[in-house]
Amino acid sequence: MSETENDLERIAEAEEQWRREVLEPRVKRFGIGKSPTRFYTPTATRGFDFLTKVGFPGQYPFTAGNNPFDFWRAHAEAGAKLGIRPDAPGGGAGAGRYSGYGTPEDYRDYQLRMQSLGSRGGPNVAFDLVTQCGYDSDSPFALGEVGRVGVALDSLRDFQVIYEAFTGERDIDKVASNFTINAPAAVIIAMYAALAEKRGIPLEKLRGTPQNDILKEFIARGTYIYPPRPSMRLFRDTLVFCRKHLPKLNVTSIGGYHIREAGATRIQDLAFSFAIGCAYLQAGVDAGLEIDDFAPMVTFNAFGGSMELYHEVAFQRAARRMWARLVKERFGAKNPRGMMIRQPIAAHIGCTSTTLQRPLNNLARAMVGGIAGGMCGALPAVYPPFDEPLGLGHSLEAIQLQVDATRILIYEARIADVNDPWAGSYFMESLTDETEAAAQAELEKIDGMGGAVAAIESGYMQRAIARSAYERQRRIESQGEFVVGVNCFSGEKELEVSVNRAVEQLYDPAQMATAEERQCAKLAELRRERDGKAVSRALQALEATARDEARNVMPDLIECVKSEATLQEICDVLRGVFGEAEPVKL
Amino acid sequence: MERVWQELIDAGTGGDRRALGRLITRVENREPGWREAMKALYPRSGRARVVGITGAPGAGKSSLASRIAAILLGQGRRVGIVAVDPTSPFSGGALLGDRLRMFDVATAPGIFIRSMATRGTLGGLCQGARDVARILDAAGFDLVLIETVGAGQDEIEVVKAADLVLVVCVPGQGDAVQTLKAGIMEIADLFVVNKADREGADELVADIHSMLALRGERSREAPPVLRTCALSGEGVDLLVAALLERADRARSSGERAGARIREEILTLIEGELARAVRRRFAGGSRLEEAVKSIRDGESDPYSAAQAILETLEPER
Amino acid sequence: MSGDRKIRVLIAKPGLDGHDRGARVVAYGLRDAGFEVIYTGLRQSPEQIATAAVQEDVDVIGLSILSGAHLALTRKVLDRLQAQGAGDIPVLVGGLIPEGDKPPLREMGVAEVFTGGTPISSIASFIQSRIASP
Lengths: 586, 316, 134
Known about the structure:
The complex is a heterotrimer. By secondary structure, chain A is mainly alpha-helical. Chain A has 23 helices and six strands. Chain A has two domains: about 5-45, no CATH class; about 50-485, Alpha-Beta Barrel (TIM Barrel). Chain A is globular, with a radius of gyration of 25 Å. The mean pLDDT of chain A is about 95. Chain C is an alpha/beta fold. Chain C is built from five helices and five strands, in the order βαβαβαβαβα. In chain C, about 45% of the residues lie in helices and about 25% in strands. Chains A and B meet through loops of A and loops of B.
């Protein structure tokens, strides 16, 4: 990498000669228009400055990784001897496997079963769509949805039931909780705080991550309630409250993951995610918080994924460097911990890369993601399990295969023995630079529009993502892009390898079928038993606070949940103040 | 008139929504008998006010239409909305996405929302919209809103079907007034600055006023410039009052009514002639011979067209 | 039939599922296949879908559901269509539909189920042939 100009000249000449004498004749011989492969030389990284561009793992700009090794790598050998899964976060005291279904009672019992099978962490909660959209289980919108994609939650009572599985050595001062909740995140955080209060646990001990990333909902996931601006006000309130009272709680998990799954290109994913990240950071700064204090509590939700191995590695490197630079230069941060992209896993293929056709192939695909992850300084997470697209949940076999594949990468392929193995590669460094430059240009375009909120209100991000998704579909349908078993190699002569799945009854379908009924009955009981006047008072107080932009709704939300107001009652008050988000025209 | 048409008309104007939808489709598709059907409907129409809403993309026209409809519904009126989107010149298909912005009134019994594509035929949009408005009129709707994107000639066309035209602008779209298609300024009876809570609203109102002054008004008075905020509903009450009042005035203006009827007759004739030409010549041997002769360098499109036209003369 | 006739399709997402990538891609694709696509977006109640189908007089309805609530929601939509006199409009369902749920959907009256990886051209051809011979 330290070639002189002279060297580079000679290399360029040699490359020209190679082209004439080796490459072009070969292209001609095979009768194709141009070479299907590329080769990179030092000329691709002219002027490369290792210390500015890469540096060292654990140091700005973090291109080579957030740290020289993670917890799981430090204890990999010991973990193997003890049979501990490498992806058990935080050594097992972190939040466990993402899960949730049925009523809170069903989910509590599920957690107890998992604990008897060895699970040690806190809940990593998936909520049903009814809850995510701020409705109660007896709302007309709840038809068919109660307890389906996650657990139903209507009140603090329900929240407490879930946590009956987390007491003693698994109490909430000892384990972390994750909540995949966005639009009503403030209410869930309020419930968490209220629960701690009831248990006499100081709020400062609570750990975990509410997803709390509302902006991506408008462009990628669709579980929004209020329009973008009031949503940002709620975000600000959660941020300020958490920094003050729940300092160990991460404040958000920014979802590049969802943006890519919605069809965004890699560059759009990076630019939109960071535009959103900047909006959140700015909200904190505008609220008077110190960047170095709260930036470290901003996390990301698994940037990724596609099948293109090289590009995903370059993406991670570019993302780390770009975010570090943004936080440092745009926000003047000094605390390196705030400049890191903290995410549970890094590169992976993404669920939309899996196919319904010949599902076992998805294991081979997920392996590519694991390799990419391992090669960019993260857990080589082989994800998702192969049966993801079947729509039946993940079977035990699929989970075991997935976990073993990750182990094979760590222990047999030894992929995690080297930090940033691509550092200095002419190819990878130039690809990283290109990725960063393209994302930076797109980010600046969004800056020009007024930032993420403006780009969302105008529909710019939504339309861009929809277009990219469509363009990809057209490429696939015209064989401009190949997906094995889907648009190529799918003829009658191909073998359908049959899939053996022990039907995973971790989620009991009988329970899911009656969840709506049981939740509605409980709601009726709740309304009978609670003090209606206390509920009204609390809701009124919330409304008054919500109408005043300068005030923080969190204390009122805590009072509301304690009075046993339901989730929808609370969200409806806010609907009355903030209005509801309107769909954007395509 | 065939019985199936008669039944559709009776049912459609008698409150059967399915029949009404089907009636509109058959007329839009120019299915045989459509003309007789429209002749039968014409005497039953003329009561409804027809208001065109146009403006640049992103101005919030659909939301505004929705809010206007909601207020009218609250006054006990019945409202039809015709939402127009462009047909793709490449595929002939269209993505009609205005309806989704009107979710809050979509299921109200007094509302009927119909999405239409421009379909690219000569004068087609205008006549098509007129036909649909007339059908809704005959079915008892008090007001019909025709909403189009003001980004093309078609959209300026469509307002010929309306008694009154609202042009919607929004602050923060750069040089909002300049970007409005030339011609839209002339047709506006009312300007609406929507999203008036945004920065730049005052400037935009001032820009519109000065643009109107620059043009120098003809005999009619300068159109008013109103402010609204479709999301919150602010200003929409006043807008509704203004447009009801002006729509009535426009309809009772003999000169305007005469001009509209004149336009419609000519459009109907043009539309039929265009169709007839295509039917007669497209794919026919005379046209193919002309093409061959041009490709062989023996003729040109102008001569070919002239020759064909001259053969039509004796038949006219 | 007059040459002006276009095939009109309603694409809707019933329920609370917010993943609209598939629905949008199909909407664009059918537009490019020459159809007029009325795209109603997210959070459509069965009532809204039936009302839209009637007012727009569509030839076919496409429901996209990835939340697992497809059986309950489809049943309700078919119900409302029937109530509004539009039970004759064919309904297609797409999204995340397990193999085992396809028979019950067909039994309810769904014309076809299109799951992941189906080329849009197949959907378009299906609709065209269905319209030609209902």
